[in-house]
Structures are given as C-alpha cells and as structure tokens.
Amino acid sequence: MALRAIRGAIQLDVDEREHLVKSTAELLTKTLHANEIENGQLVSILFTSTPDITSEFPAVAARELDLGDVPLMCFVEMDVIGAMQRVIRILIMVESDKARSEIQHVYLRGAKALRQDIAQ
Fold this sequence. Notes:
Blueprint: E1 2-11, H1 17-34, E2 42-49, H2 59-64, E3 72-76, E4 87-96, E5 106-108
Parallel strand pairs: 1-5, 2-3
Antiparallel strand pairs: 1-4, 2-4
GO molecular function: chorismate mutase activity
Pfam family, one: CM_1
C-alpha cells in the first residue's frame, strides 16, 4: 500500500454551526465513498477554513462520523484578497493500493470553481 492524499472542498451558504458540520460531513462522506476508503485506511485528515468561518471547527464533523480515532487538525487559510469566501478544504491522507491517477478529488457547491480540472 502507498500513502495517498485526497483533496476536497465545499463552499458554505452561511457560517452557522449546524450548516458547517452538516456540509463538512457531506464533503467527507462523498470523498471517502468516491475513493472506497474505509476507516482503517485513514492516516490523518487536515481541514482548512477561510478566515470568515468562525462558527465551529470542521473536525467536529469527522468526530460525529465516528472518525475520532483518526488524527485531525484544523487550520485557517491565508486571507488572500479576492479569494472565495466560506470555504472548507480537506486533505485526507490514506493508505491505498490505488494509483495516484485513480484518486477522486471532490469539490462541492461553489468550491467546484476552485479546481475545475479535477472537480467531480
């Protein structure tokens, strides 16, 4: 097995705790499903959020999906002028037999515009 990195992002409609947790859970679930990843393959998950998101840590969604035994870290994205607002990004590190070219990166809602070259 090789160590693989899976990217993803979702744009929130509003910065409200319930919406953030539900949206982050949707992103995680769809990304793990698209790549046929099981809990035992997870090495770690990194979350970033744009500076305008303050209602909750995105990692809470992972804990609510029973991923609490996976190392989780949250960071704030750089505050770049003109950058898309209300975005949660993920970087999931997994052990997988898949080739790098087989990895499915998942970008949802407005975040699809961030990586049109690889968005589902």
